[in-house]
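JOB MANIFEST
job_type = single_chain_structure
chain_count = 1
residues = 113
[input]
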Amino acid sequence: QVQFVESGGGLVQAGGSLRLSCAASTYTNAIGWYRQAPGKQREWVALITSGSLTNYADSVKGRFTISRDNAKNTVYLQMNSLQPEDTAVYYCNTFPRPRNEYWGQGTQVTVSS
C-alpha cells in the first residue's frame, strides 16, 4: 500500500510557473503525474522510472519537467509556460497502472488568461 500526497498547486497567470510535489509513503518504482480538468477524464501527464527515465504527454512536452528525489520518496513536476488549458487537479500515482486505492486528494492548478 502506498500513500501519495500532492502539494504545490495554486493560481497563476498564463505564462507563469509552478512546482508540484508528490510525497510517497514508500519507495515506488515508476510514478506518473496525472490531471483531471473539470468535465474531462483524468489523463496522464508525465512519468519517471526508477532510473529517472522520463516521458511526457505531447500537450506538456517542452514545458513540464518531472524529477525525483529517492532519498525523500518525492517526485516533482516543474511546470513552466502554463496555459489556461493546464487548469486541472493534479495527482500522482503508480505508472503504467495507477491503482484506484492510491489516488490522493490531488492539488489544484488554476491558470488564468
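[summary]
The chain has a mean pLDDT of 97.
Residues 63 and 80 are 5 Å apart (CA to CA).
exit_status = 0
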